[in-house]
Write a structure and sequence with these properties.
Radius of gyration: 28 Å
Helix content: 25-40%
Strand content: 5-15%
Order of helices and strands: EEHEHH
CATH class of the largest domain: Alpha Beta
Number of strands: 3
CATH topology of the largest domain: Double Stranded RNA Binding Domain
Number of domains: 2
Largest sheet: 3 strands, antiparallel
Structural class: alpha+beta
Distance between the termini: 67 Å
Mean pLDDT: 85
CATH architecture of the largest domain: 2-Layer Sandwich
C-alpha cells in the first residue's frame, strides 16, 4: 500500500469560463465551467513525485509541465471546481502508484510438450522437403 499524496490548494489555480455546448437562457451569461491549472514544478510535491508526474504520458500535461483540466459537467462553479480537483487527485494517484513487479513463472508441462511436438512436426516437414520429395 502506498501513501497518498494530498494536493495543497495553494498549488491549484482556477479560472471561471463559460461552458461549451448548447445555449440557453443561462449558459451564455454565467461562467460556470472551471479551468484548473496545476504547475508541477512550482507545486509543493516531493521532487521525485514532480519528476514522475512530469514524465507521465497524459494529454492533460503540457510541454511546460502544467496540468490543465477543464470541468463543465455541473451547473455550478463550485461543483465543477470540486470535480476538477477530484480528477487532478485521480491523475496524481494513478501517476504516482508504483508499477507492480513482474513475477517470473515457469512454463507448464503441457506447454513444453506442445512446443516439442510442434518442433518435431516442423522438423519432419523440412526433412521431407530435403529428401527430394517436393518434385525437383
Amino acid at each position: 500500500m502506498t501513501r497518498r499524496l494530498l494536493l495543497n490548494p495553494a498549488d491549484v489555480e482556477f479560472t471561471a469560463i463559460r461552458a461549451q455546448g448548447a445555449g440557453g437562457q443561462n449558459v451564455n451569461k454565467v461562467s460556470s465551467a472551471a479551468h484548473l491549472r496545476f504547475d508541477i514544478s512550482a507545486s509543493s510535491l516531493p521532487d521525485a513525485a514532480k519528476l514522475q508526474l512530469a514524465q507521465w504520458p497524459d494529454q492533460r500535461i503540457s510541454d511546460a509541465g502544467v496540468v490543465i483540466i477543464k470541468a463543465q459537467t455541473h451547473r455550478s462553479l463550485p461543483r465543477n471546481q470540486a470535480d476538477a480537483l477530484a480528477r487532478l487527485q485521480a491523475l496524481l494517484d494513478l501517476a504516482l502508484t508504483p508499477e507492480a513487479p513482474r513475477l517470473a513463472t515457469k512454463p507448464t508441462r503441457a506447454s513444453k510438450r506442445r512446443r516439442l511436438e510442434q518442433k518435431s512436426r516442423r522438423g519432419a516437414t523440412k526433412l521431407s522437403r530435403r529428401n527430394g520429395l517436393s518434385g525437383e
